[in-house]
Design a protein that fits this description.
The chain is an alpha/beta fold and 260 residues long. It is built from twelve helices and six strands. Strand 4 and strand 5 form a beta hairpin.
């Protein structure tokens, strides 16, 4: 990362461009650009592509990027992970699994063990470490505002077995008791509701701009178009009104955990 950062800084200064100018081109703040140039932050795939275009040195930038050790997240997920780590607000609606940000280690391991095609043991450990590293957001200062809406059936599927599921439910209750976390359950008794189009994650950036992350089948898309994000924010608001209140959700989760 230090080598890539040094190359980027050298090219930028040679052209007489500022960090602010490069930041505008790649979607980073000047301080984030500085962190990349000092080798303190892994550049996202978007940073690399846009920096190559902005600096007019695609071959040099891409050659330097080949030496980056992207050992935390898949390339398609890296940019979202960067946005998530610096988010001031995060809202999720989940329909298949508990959101990766709030999974216990045992739950995550069970999810990775079930992956098909099968993952090698070393790859499972790498992905486990990467997913757990994201949980720094949960204890960060200043605290991020986090809202979770989870389908009831997700909390009833015994991923990893009964003991693993029970611990996962207990962890969600612990999180839901925090002042900065809102946890709601979408009950199965509803015939239909505003979330029928599928899961989503919404992030508010330090600049108070909202972006959305839509993921399916080992791939994802970061949405920053204002009109599209506005629709998703409105939809998420309706989902929250249709879900159980945080208090009733906690009672239901306690009941489910007690049944295990």
């Amino acid at each position: 990362m230090r080598m890539f950062g040094a190359v980027t800084r050298s090219l930028r200064e040679e052209l007489g461009r500022t960090r602010e100018q490069l930041g505008v081109a790649v979607g980073y703040s000047a301080s984030q650009v500085a962190m990349v140039e000092r080798g303190e932050r892994m550049p996202s795939a978007r940073f690399i592509a846009r920096a190559a275009e902005f600096l007019g040195q695609r071959t040099t930038i891409e050659s330097a990027a080949e030496h980056l050790e992207r050992n935390l997240h898949p390339s398609w997920f890296g940019e979202y992970a960067d946005r998530e780590a610096e988010a001031v607000s995060l809202c999720t609606y989940n329909t298949h699994l508990v959101h990766g940000l709030v999974q216990t280690e045992e739950y995550t391991r069970a999810v990775l063990d079930a992956r098909f095609p099968m993952l090698e043991d070393a790859e499972i450990e790498r992905r486990l470490d990467a997913r757990l590293s994201r949980q720094a957001l949960l204890s960060r200062t200043p605290a991020a505002s986090i809202a979770l809406v989870i389908e009831e059936w997700v909390l009833r599927r015994p991923v990893g077995g009964v003991a693993v599921l029970k611990r996962q439910l207990e962890w969600l209750l612990e999180l839901g008791a925090r002042r900065n976390v809102s946890l709601q359950v979408m009950p199965m008794l509803y015939e239909a509701h505003a979330g029928v189009d599928g899961p989503m994650t919404l992030l508010e950036t330090p600049k108070r701009q909202w972006v959305a992350w839509l993921e399916a089948q080992g791939n994802g898309r970061l949405v920053d178009d204002r009109d599209e994000v506005s629709v998703l924010l409105t939809r998420y608001g309706m989902i929250r009104t249709q879900a159980l209140t945080p208090g009733d959700s906690a009672k239901l989760i306690e009941q489910m955990a007690g049944e295990l």
